[in-house]
């Protein structure tokens, strides 16, 4: 009798404990649902701000001598196709915010960073909230710049590498890490730039999109067989053909798309390293492979990154950004 009572008592206690666990779990579940319900409207509002689309206002016939639309219907932006005031008004209304990342490592900092930043303040995304993220191995040497309202700079210290090729390739991991740890708190768009460039004209909100790629100034009119894709079948960047040749000096978009691109490039660079392979043009080769597999939603013309050395410039009605003069022998000697 005593054993039966003990068994019954233990069974009752067990049922009570189980009931308490169920009640507690149910309470936590409903609390979680309520928390999600509170978060969703804000997340949806942010998503709507990211997905501004004014492509229906573009005049695709304004530039008959150049290609203004890709085969997959993505616009290729040229001067005369868009109303800059319309784009600015919409993005200001939707509180679009832009991160600009730039790497100034080694001698590149002294040679280019000050001019890059001061020219960006005159021409890049004026009217929008902009945060410059400067990646450098010499934080103490970053120049002091006077920034306009709602524009600021953050310095991220990076490792010094022995080869410039490693700096070029490792930037993809650093960009991805910065998006995850820092940038997503402050911005909903990002543009990634090389530092050896100078802004000369409007580089505005018309360039913002989900996934943005730049047509290379030297290749946008050349036949595909001349594109310098990586032709080594052992490399993860290997391509037999493609749509265009993209320049890695500029790429951008909403944060999740740029992070996907950066992660893809970094993982494939690392796999190549394991196989003792290095892509022909380093991260640019992997970027071209990514955009071949994942078509960009917006292409920006060579107006947005022009090399003044090119004599054939009749298509370029305005230069928004130009290549700075380079002395690679001096810059890349460590």
From TrEMBL:
The active site is at 284 (nucleophile). GO terms for biological process: carbohydrate metabolic process. It comes from the Eukaryota. It is found in: Membrane. CDD domains: Glyco_transf_6. It is a single-pass type II membrane protein. Belongs to the glycosyltransferase 6 family. PANTHER family: ALPHA-1,3-GALACTOSYLTRANSFERASE 2 (PTHR10462:SF33), GLYCOSYLTRANSFERASE-RELATED (PTHR10462). This is Alpha 1,3-galactosyltransferase 2. One of its GO terms (molecular function) is hexosyltransferase activity. Gene3D superfamilies: Spore Coat Polysaccharide Biosynthesis Protein SpsA, Chain A. Its cofactor is Mn(2+). One of its GO terms (cellular component) is membrane. Binds 1 Mn(2+) ion per subunit. Keywords: Glycosyltransferase, Manganese, Membrane, Metal-binding, Signal-anchor, Transferase, Transmembrane, Transmembrane helix. UDP-N-acetyl-alpha-D-galactosamine binds at residues 103-105, 108, 194-196. Pfam families: Glyco_transf_6. An alpha-L-fucosyl-(1->2)-beta-D-galactosyl derivative binds at residues 216, 228, 284, 307. Mn(2+) binds at residues 194, 196.
